[in-house]
Design goal:
Helices cover 52% and strands 12% of the residues. It contains 17 helices and eight strands. Bound molecules: adenosine-5'-triphosphate and magnesium ion.
């Protein structure tokens, strides 16, 4: 299932909860990557509520995924829409036809095959909230998708739910050609669900291994491939990262899944202002705190995304603390400059020259 071609990187962006900044992040990461000279395509795959065009500063959507799925024969590439950024093209969600979100398995496979034919260096996929099979399967197009959460407990819970569904989907697909073992897995999932006991991947491997050692080994291999990258959005203080530390331990313990802390984006009122002005954040104020945080993530994508990350647990925390100190200092300097540009400065120009 994992499909990474050497010359191209697919980055699906998901998170479980709605309204946590997936689209904001996807749109602005795409703009940053394109501005750095990389041919980038960004696709709105939130089939139930496409709105990526708004974050790109476009007034409306042209034909895109919706029309592609309903016309049956066309190639997805023909829906590539140029943007006013060099190197950035966009495929709108275009989900005006009712129930576009409920696509058939075959249509989804056709869509995924066509996505792989889109020529670019970076292919960014903005996914919807929740953990539907469609969202999970789009996410599985890369073994290093990006998961977003805010520091809020509800958002962290939904992110964990998303990762848990991801792993169970991976396991289920690994057993798709083996009906008896697949049935045993379903029973196991149902039993634990009824008892409200969290089911760990270790337990699944033990139980399935007892009846079918080969399948258990396939499951293990499939699970080990995935290593999502986590972005904390709308953070107010670097220590917000400490709040989600426990969730890394939980995914390791229960899901045998490692996640890499990858980025931190500050909560910034400029984000809302940019949306109100119908402009992408990166264009509205590239120097604001959120835009700078996103630009830093884009740089990390270029330099380390394709590498196995073995950064110390504290690496992102340390970086965010330094950035936070820089912001505080910058804010103090700005207010000093504002003071100096007051009438006092006009009255005594020599004093301030
Ligand atoms: N870093 C931030 N600082 C301040 N506000 C933010 C930030 N990120 C996102 N927002 C706010 O959150 C809102 C929701 O963001 P967005 O639409 O990107 O979320 P989403 O996860 O894509 O939601 P959905 O699941 O509904 O598609 C934005 O309109 C913006 O007002
Ligand atoms: Mg969205």
């Amino acid at each position: 299932m994992t499909i990474i071609r050497q010359e191209r990187t697919i980055i699906p962006v998901a998170g479980g909860k709605g309204g946590i900044g997936k689209s904001l992040l996807t749109a602005n990461l795409a703009i940053s990557l394109a501005s750095m000279g990389h041919k980038t395509v960004v696709v709105d795959l939130d089939l139930g509520g496409s709105n990526l065009h708004t974050f790109l500063g476009l007034s409306g959507e042209g034909p895109g995924i919706g029309t592609f799925m309903h016309t049956g024969k066309s190639r997805l590439e023909t829906y590539l829409t140029a943007t006013h950024w060099r190197n950035l093209s966009f495929i709108p969600g275009d989900c005006n036809i009712p129930f576009t979100g409920n696509i058939h398995h075959q249509t989804k496979l056709r869509l995924m095959r066509n996505l792989l034919d889109i020529p670019c260096r970076y292919l960014l996929l903005d996914l919807g909230a929740g953990s539907s099979h469609n969202t999970l399967d789009f996410f599985r197009m890369s073994d290093r998708g990006m998961v977003v959460t805010t520091p809020e407990a509800a958002s962290v819970q939904n992110m964990l739910g998303f990762l848990s569904n991801l792993i169970f989907r991976v396991i289920e697909r690994a057993l798709r050609n083996n009906p008896p073992t697949h049935k045993a897995l379903r029973q196991l999932l149902r039993l634990h669900g009824e008892r409200h006991v969290p089911l760990s991947v270790e337990t699944i491997l033990e139980e399935i291994g007892a009846i079918d050692a080969r399948s258990a080994s396939n499951i293990k291999k499939a699970c080990l491939r995935y290593r999502p990258r986590l972005v904390l959005n709308m953070g107010r203080h670097p220590d917000d990262l400490l709040r989600i530390e426990g969730s890394f331990a939980a995914t390791r313990r229960l899901l045998s899944l490692y996640t890499d802390p990858f980025g931190f984006v500050f909560d910034d009122p400029t984000v809302r202002e940019s949306i109100d002005h119908g402009m992408p954040l990166m264009e509205f104020d590239p120097d604001c705190t959120a835009a700078k945080s996103i630009a830093h993530i884009a740089q990390r994508i270029v330099y380390v995304w394709d590498k196995t990350l073995n950064e110390p647990d504290q690496a992102l925390l340390n970086h965010t603390r330094k950035f936070y100190e820089f912001i505080q200092k910058d804010t103090r300097q700005r207010s000093m400059r504002d003071m100096l540009s007051s009438p006092m400065r006009n009255l005594f120009p020599n004093l301030f020259s």
